[in-house]
Amino acid sequence: MDCIFCKIINGEIPSHKIYEDENVLAFLDITQGTKGHTLIIPKKHIKNVYELDEETIIDVFRVVPMIANALKKAFSPIGLNIINNNDQPHQSVFHFHLHLIPRYENDGMQLSTVDNFGKYDPKYFQDLINSIKEEL
Ligand code: 5GP
Ligand code: ZN
Questions:
Q1: What are the residue boundaries of the structural domains of the chain, listed by start?
Q2: Is 97 one of the annotated active-site residues of the chain?
Q3: What is residue 116's three-state secondary structure?
Q4: CA-CA to 86 of 20 to 30 Å: which in 19, 51, 100, 101?
Q5: Closest by alpha carbon to 102, among 68, 65, 64?
Q6: How many angstroms does the Cα of residue 23 sit away from the middle of ligand 2?
Q7: Given pLDDT bands bounded at 50, 70 and 90, which one contains residue 111?
Q8: For 88-108, what is the mean pLDDT?
């Protein structure tokens, strides 16, 4: 399979590994968006969140606090973002992964949500709930 992360798992491509167990691999993101920028991936090839099974995401998240705390102790960031991109506009590698991105003062990272507070009435919220619940 032509997947760069599967190749990293199989050792066909080198990586800077932080942690590995039977089901999960954590390694440094090659771009180092901030110091310690880490990716955590399941060894099972899963495209993104829409294909995830419970067991796999449990395996992935089981190691998140350990790695987050290691990054915190190692580099003393002021905070940490956990990011997961699915499809457009940001997913570039189609093997599920979490980004752990330690944050520092003036680190240049752009990460913000749009604040639409006050823009919508209660009916809008109710319609949203109905639409989502129909699909659960
Ligand atoms: P996405 O944009 O899909 O959420 O993130 C993919 C990430 O994989 C990017 O941050 C990119 O830097 C990282 N990446 C892509 N190719 C490689 C590689 O060969 N080695 C490592 N360590 N990271 C990679
Ligand atoms: Zn893969």
A1: 4-135
A2: yes
A3: coil
A4: 19
A5: 68
A6: 13
A7: confident
A8: 97
- Top-tier CATH class for 4-135: alpha beta
> Does this model's pTM top 0.85?
yes
Give residue 41 CA to ligand 2 midpoint distance, Å: 9
- Give the ranges where 1-136 is alpha helix by DSSP (H): 4-9, 54-62, 64-75, 122-135
One-letter amino acid at 46 equals I
37, 90, 97, 99: which one is catalytic?
Answer: 97
Q: How confident is the model at residue 128 (pLDDT cuts 50, 70, 90)?
A: very high
Buried (b) or exposed (e) across 1-25, using 16+ Cβ within 10 A? eeeebbebbeeeeebeebeeeebbb
Q: Are 42 and 58 in contact (CB under 8 A)?
A: no
Q: Give the type of residue at 15.
A: S
Which of 54-58, 110-114, 129-133 shows the lowest per-residue confidence on average (mean pLDDT)? 110-114
